[in-house]
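Design job #97: recover the sequence.
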């Protein structure tokens, strides 16, 4: 079966099958424009696309899939250091401007299911981001499992305004629509008013989005006609869950996943949804809890193929018997419902739906000539879930100067929201920074 049936005439077409902001395109025109991109890039080792919230990004992504060339989405707000790392590490050829009026009917051979479709860069707890290799088979397996769990079909109108350079916005939010045949409305930004005006049946958002929707009751009530509200990328606070239920009449579906695993656990459209719970494993996915801490481990057809050029990191992320170590701590209720209760490390910060590695931000701070030491942690934040907070030993640099310095080098969303200038960092007898003391301070 083709990866994207909507482009193969499997569903009735319409002029606005895919809409991003004020621009819309039919599936037939999307296929023609994307094939024109495929003609340009065929044979490339990989192609890098500046993943703006635009129809051009959608066309570029589909073109790479048609050509069988691994797609490397680059965050549009990435700084020069992050951008250079992504391009150098992936070996990707940057894609030039996309012409939405171009058309081609060239027939490109269908790649093998095991071929890499996407290389997504994700922040670990230390060092530079690693390239996660996602195969066509893994994407197809995940989208089919989600379609079954969420009763997602061609009758739906999917609405979201999520970034197009990670799993939630690109894989679920674009490729999911093209696989299920649902119409897609991307609002460019996930503003409550835009969500309310879209008249969708299926909405995607991260906790920060849903919190802001609830802060505008009129916009929230406009979603009462939807079929399903889905929340992911971080834990949904219980008060937001309850506010959505009160204002929209919907109990949101929560799900759990990572770039390396795609979505592995989710509540179901026809099943119970409880605050603080992320549901049960999707079809084909198995989970277990490792002793003694209860770290969640998973295996199944949705897992990544490995980290690009990092066999050491790939091997370290799996157990000896082949289970992927998520690094998240979980509990499982008697009925199989999963709860994510913590992180086995303090160095992965979930801020506004993004996962940010503390080590990457620390490295950026240490590149400033005035900085001698830096420690970065995630602090609770009512809107973002966590905010990035840095504790820095520096001479002659202000807190704002350091915030701006990081924002220029990395993606803007990775900048510290607060910088505390300190005389020294707390360390244990072995010299390791005691971040728990910073968090508790």
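Job complete. Output follows.
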């Amino acid at each position: 079966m083709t990866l994207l049936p909507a482009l193969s005439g499997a569903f009735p077409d319409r002029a606005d099958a895919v809409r991003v902001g004020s621009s819309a395109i039919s599936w037939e025109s999307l296929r023609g424009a994307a094939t024109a991109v495929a003609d340009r890039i065929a044979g490339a080792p990989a192609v890098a696309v500046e993943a703006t919230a635009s129809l051009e990004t959608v066309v570029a992504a589909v073109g790479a899939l048609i050509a069988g060339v691994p797609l490397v989405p680059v965050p549009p707000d990435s700084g020069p250091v992050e951008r250079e790392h992504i391009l150098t590490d992936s070996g990707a050829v940057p894609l030039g401007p996309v012409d939405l009026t171009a058309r081609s009917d060239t027939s490109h051979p269908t790649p093998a299911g095991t071929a890499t479709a996407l290389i997504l860069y994700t922040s670990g707890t230390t060092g530079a981001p690693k390239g996660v290799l996602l195969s066509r088979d893994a994407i197809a397996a995940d989208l089919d499992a989600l379609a079954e769990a969420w009763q997602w079909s061609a009758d739906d109108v999917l609405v979201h305004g999520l970034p197009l350079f990670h799993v939630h916005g690109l894989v679920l939010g674009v490729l999911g629509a093209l696989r299920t045949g649902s119409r897609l409305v991307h609002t460019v930004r996930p503003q409550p008013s835009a969500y309310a005006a879209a008249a969708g049946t299926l909405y995607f958002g991260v906790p920060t989005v849903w919190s802001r929707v609830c802060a505008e009751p009129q916009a929230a009530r406009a979603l009462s006609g939807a079929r399903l509200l889905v929340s992911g990328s971080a834990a949904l606070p219980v008060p937001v869950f309850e506010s959505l239920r009160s204002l929209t009449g919907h109990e949101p579906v929560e799900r759990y996943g990572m770039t390396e695993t795609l979505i592995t656990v989710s509540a179901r459209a026809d099943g119970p949804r409880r605050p603080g719970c992320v549901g049960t494993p999707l079809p084909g996915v198995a989970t277990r809890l490792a002793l003694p801490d209860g770290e969640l481990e998973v295996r199944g057809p949705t897992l990544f193929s490995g980290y690009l050029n990092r066999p050491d990191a790939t091997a370290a992320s799996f157990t000896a018997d082949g289970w992927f170590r998520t690094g998240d701590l979980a509990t499982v209720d008697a009925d199989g419902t999963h709860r994510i209760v913590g992180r086995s490390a303090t160095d992965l910060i979930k801020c506004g739906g993004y996962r940010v590695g503390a080590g990457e931000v620390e490295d950026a701070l240490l590149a400033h000539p005035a900085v001698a030491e830096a420690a970065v942690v995630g602090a609770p934040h009512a809107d973002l879930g966590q905010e990035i907070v840095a504790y820095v030993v520096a001479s002659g640099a202000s807190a704002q100067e350091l915030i701006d310095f990081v924002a220029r080098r990395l993606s803007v969303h990775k900048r510290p929201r607060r910088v505390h200038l300190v005389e020294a960092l707390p360390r244990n007898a072995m010299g390791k920074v005691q971040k728990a003391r910073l968090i508790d301070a």
